[in-house]
Design goal:
CATH superfamily of the domain at 136-229: Cyclin-like
Largest sheet: 3 strands, antiparallel
CATH architecture of the domain at 136-229: Orthogonal Bundle
Strand order of the largest sheet: 1-2-3
């Protein structure tokens, strides 16, 4: 191919590019002009519309708002609210900032990986896991937070309680309260404290049923971290247990309300002092169900509340006498 031919081809391609840019520019000008009056078009982001400033014609509607869903009034607030990716969480040892390699051995199109690729991905997962827990503190956190999540799931506690328990455990770890105590014991005590703080308490027996440490160690560790961390935890209110017991027993709202009234009367007369709040709540639910003629046995209430029938009978008589009813 001669130099003249090459220059002709080059000129032809350059001419084609100029024509394409010119056409694009003309198309953009047509888009910016009103099709009715050739007036200027503006975008109304608040209403998601493109309108003509001269005749008011709405050229485009229901536009996608690509901005954030929040408002900021200064640069500092904007920096605090802007975010990318999933929110951070205290329930993970790295606050959820690291990445995970999925366990599915498939590519982006859903096709299965070859054996060589599966081996490579397994090695990457192993090294990724090692890098995520580089020191003893991170390994400690990973084990403890996993234990908190497991127990909270078994007890049906909400995410907010798990977050609070994770923060309590992190504080105990930062203040060097773990030496001489097991990771599982401190994790269980942190969850027990968080549940009481959130107003969704669980009894020590319920906690002990899902924990890997014994009841005495949980109680001892709980008292220790509450004292050392200066946690403000009010004594458990028997009324806080009533909704859960009522839901598990499937009793009516009237019976639940009656149980609350029995407990309020007991507190006014000081009967609740020195007695287990779980036992009082279970006895109140049982007594209330009888007062509204709903058939609930002591054995059923005992299984739901995880306390003995003897305790229910004793508290049941005391509650009815305080309320002015003669027990059967």
């Amino acid at each position: 191919m001669t130099d003249t031919t090459i220059r002709e081809h080059s000129n032809t391609r350059e001419h084609a590019r100029r024509q394409k840019r010119k056409q694009t520019s003309q198309d953009d000008e047509e888009q910016l002009a009103c099709p009715e009056c050739d007036g200027q078009l503006v975008s109304d982001e608040e209403r998601g519309e493109t309108v003509c400033v001269d005749c008011g014609l709405v050229v485009d509607a229901d536009e996608i708002d690509r901005g954030p869903e929040w408002r900021a009034f200064d640069s500092k607030e904007k920096d605090q609210k802007s975010r990318v990716g999933a929110p951070t969480t205290k329930m993970m040892h790295d606050d959820g900032l690291s990445t995970n390699i999925g366990w599915q051995n498939k590519d982006a199109y859903g096709r299965s990986l070859s054996s060589r690729q599966r081996e490579k991905m397994q090695r990457l997962r192993t090294w990724n896991e090692r890098f995520r827990t580089r020191d003893a503190k991170e390994r400690n956190l990973k084990q403890a937070l996993g234990e908190i999540d497991r127990m909270a799931s078994a007890l049906g506690l909400p995410k907010s309680v798990r977050e609070t328990a994770s923060v309590i455990y992190r504080r105990a770890l930062d203040e060097d309260l773990l030496p001489g105590r097991s990771i599982e014991g401190v994790a269980t005590a942190s969850l027990y404290a968080a549940a009481r703080q959130a107003g969704t308490p669980r009894s020590l027996d319920e906690i002990n049923a899902v924990s890997r440490v014994d009841r005495a160690e949980v109680a001892r560790t709980y008292r220790y971290i509450v004292r050392e961390l200066n946690l403000e935890i009010q004594p458990a209110d028997p009324e806080q247990y009533v909704p859960r017991f009522a839901s598990d027993l499937d009793i009516s709202e009237e019976a639940e309300r009656r149980a609350r009234d029995l407990l309020k009367t007991a507190k006014e007369q000081g009967i609740h002092s020195g007695k287990s709040p779980v036992g009082l709540a279970a006895a109140a639910v049982y007594a209330a169900s009888l007062l509204v003629n709903e058939k609930v046995t002591q054995n059923t209430v005992s299984e739901v509340a995880n306390i003995s029938e003897v305790t229910i009978r004793n508290r049941y008589h005391e509650l009815l006498e305080a309320d002015g009813h003669a027990p059967d």
